[in-house]
Amino acid sequence: MNRSMRLVGLWAAIASSAAAPGCHDVAECESVVVPRPSEVRPLSGHSLVSGGLSLSFATPDSVARPLEEWVRRSPLPVAPDGGSAASAPGHTLTLELSQGATLPASAEGYHLRVHPAGISVRSRGAAGLFYGLQTLLALYERHGDQIPAQEITDSPRFGWRGLHLDVSRHFFDKEFVKKQMRMMARLKLNRLHLHLTDAAGWRLEVGGFPELTEVGAWREGATWREWEEGGHRQSRQGAEGAYGGFFSRADVEDIVATARSLHIEVVPEIEFPGHSEEVLASMPDLACRGGVAGGELCLGNERSFEVVEGVLSEVLRLFPSEYVHIGGDEAGHAAWEACPLCRGAMLREGLGSAAELQGWGVRRLGDFLARHGRRMVGWDETLEGGLAPGAVVMSWRGEEGGRRAAAMGHDVVMTPGAFCYLDSYQDNPTTEPLAMSGYLPLPRVYSYDPAPPTMEGRERVLGVQANLWTEHVETEDHAEYMLYPRLFALAEVAWSAAEGKNYSDFHRRALWAASRARTLGYNTFDLTHEQGERHESLRPDNHRAVGCPVAYKTAWNSAYPAEGAQTLTNGLRGPWSYKTRWQGFLGTGVDVTVDLRKTTDIGEVAADFVQWHSAWIWMPERVSFYVSEDSTDFRLLHTAENGYPPDERRPAWQTFGWRGRDRARYVRMVAEAGKRQGGWLFTDEIRIN
Ligand code: TNX
Q: What is the 3-state composition of the chain as percent helix, strand, coil, each rounded to the nearest 5?
């Protein structure tokens, strides 16, 4: 069977299996559309699309042609010759550009009418017509040939509805990118932010700088981890064992053309001035001179700006986007501070610190882009060194950067790690594939509000974006597994009004959307088998020490205080995320004593610890429990040795404890940290029974 026959067969199967028996009208049929439309009004009857729709356009040709092409390639049934509108009135699909007063104000909004007399989509803009078609497609896939009559009025909450894809840490080719854009379009997402460059690989062919793709695009180590553990070694195109790849200019043209047809803007990111080891490997003369190693471009060397502006010129030729992202995150300062050229630039420009030096460099690029009619976007660090007024801030280190930027009058895109980082775990971290630190299940993505009513400057929030970093994402299947269904939730956060949010309704629609996605060949996480939050954390544990005072010989770290002195005896055990309920100790181990308030029979003492390698959190080497009558003389009860391998990257939750028979008033726990980087220990709830 050839490919197109297979596809036809597949679509036929979808269309027939989609019709849900017994679902006769909208009031009865639960909507399946993701993201949830603003308003759905049931009408009576059905629209019959069997036999194919005939298309009718009340739009200029330039709008009609791409829409018609999209419809013809879509699963929507179209009469073979396009049909004659006059001969089959009930089978007409009319697309109309209109300024009608009842239409949503946004050119991305639309009005869709499904009626026995025909189907119409009306909008002020081509994008709105396109989104109306996406909704129609979802209805068709759900109901098949008989779509219950209804009217939908819909428009987006935000103009920036984004997905970020890191193609540097692992390279994903243009076919993969186009496939994800097709799903984005179904979800009414309209910005694809491509992280094209980073230390682990440069992914864009640039005229005039062949070394960037001959050297910078290739590394030793097929996976990011091998490269990382091997000491960040760059390779060369064609060298044995070299891993890499890049987009040729033709690839970019293809991606951009596809994006345009799907009403997506591709926002390219060129990392500057940090995360640039691959550039330094390609052009060693751009490194600082002071003998301190770093992954930053030397900002005192004019050649750095010549190269970056040369690269950006190519970027501007290839990407027609309004926005260009210049990175700006996580730049170290040590190399600049030691570098005579950078120090010279600071003196010359009157810059008091390395942060100001970075701000100066970023502003230069911002001016460069503005002169070419584009707007600069940067990660929230770009705010620190003083930012040009028109620049857009992408807030990733929590929401604070975004809030500050908005209050200062900058446009912002919210993409805080705690809600938008799809490289974190979506389910039980002990059984899921290795991911970045953090637990971000579907309900949490869905719960996010990028611009709550209380936010100062909330009108500055352009929108919201999900980020998929790919340090641990090595294959296409894995990337899709991390994206879906969480991207459905993000799409709904970005498109649908915050009022009327309802997770169980969304969950039902997400199950449907995930099953559609699988039929279409996307590898999604299986939501039907979601395990959910750590069970131990779900209900209070009413053990004997609940509410008892705890004396701390070692102080918790102020970054992870949990509930302060109450944390370890509040009856609540920690969840998958180490950021709540768990108390963090840095470099000191843990030495705490629980006062049971009177001498008590005890049969069990236990506490939990976490190991989370990517967050530098380790199991203790050993945990000893002591008892005492007077809190002065302690007798050892038990020492529990750690059995979990310190090098194991898979996160783990382990109980260290003792069972037996004893009597005591004071119970002391001493957890010793190993000699690991940072030496974080995270513990929670000392349970005594
Ligand atoms: C932080 S988000 C980074 C990325 C990493 C990511 C991993 C940002 C601007 N920088 O370089 O890939 O964390 O979650």
A: 30, 25, 40
Both tokens of 596, joined, read 């049971």
Cα–Cα distance for residue pair 139/219, rounded to 1 Å = 46
- Pull the structure tokens for residue 156: 């987006």
Strands 590-611 and 680-688: antiparallel
CA of 394 from ligand 1 middle (Å) equals 12
Considering only CA atoms, which residue is closest to atom 4 of ligand 1?
Answer: 469
Parallel, antiparallel, or unpaired for β 110-115 and 39-48?
unpaired
pLDDT tens sequence across 94-104: 999 999 999 99
Q: Where are the alpha helices (DSSP H) in 123-267?
A: 126-143, 174-186, 210-214, 224-229, 249-261
The one-letter amino acid code at 551 reads A
SS3 468: strand
pLDDT, the chain, mean: 93
Residue having the nearest C-alpha atom to atom 9 of ligand 1 = 329
Helix pair 174-186, 249-261: axis angle to 10 deg? 10
From the list 456, 510, 453, 447, the residue with the least C-alpha distance to 483 is 510
Checking if the pLDDT of 3 tops 60, the result is no
Residue 356 CA, ligand 1 centroid: distance in Å = 22
Centre of ligand 1 from the C-alpha of residue 379, in Å = 10
C-beta separation of 479 from 526 below 8 A: no
User: What residues contact 575, with CB distance under 8 A and at least 6 apart?
Assistant: 439, 533, 534, 537, 581
- For ligand 1, say whether the CB of 436 is within 6 Å of any of its atoms: yes
Question: From the CB of 612, is ligand 1 less than 6 Å away?
Answer: no
CA distances (Å), origin 512, targets 34, 241, 527: 9, 42, 10
**Strand locations in 567-589, DSSP E?**
583-586
In angstroms, what is the span from residue 187 Cα to ligand 1's centroid?
Answer: 25
> Residue 421 CA: which ligand 1 atom is closest?
14
How far is it, in rounded angstroms, from Cα 353 to Cα 339?
13
Q: How confident is the model at residue 181 (pLDDT cuts 50, 70, 90)?
A: very high
Half-sphere exposure of 275 (CA within 13 A, CB side): 20
Q: Where are the beta strands (DSSP E) in 502-566?
A: 550-552
Q: Is the CB of 396 under 6 A from ligand 1?
A: yes
Instruction: Give 83-125 pLDDT, tens digit per residue.
Output: 554 456 678 999 999 999 999 999 999 999 999 999 999 999 9
Q: Which residues pair with 115 in a beta bridge?
A: 118
CA–CA gap between residue 137 and residue 406 (Å, rounded): 37
Q: Contact at 8 Å (CB) between 194 and 324?
A: no
Q: Read off the DSSP letter of residue 78.
A: B
Measure 422 CA to ligand 1 centroid, in angstroms.
Answer: 11
Reference 246, options 346, 171, 152; nearest CA is: 171
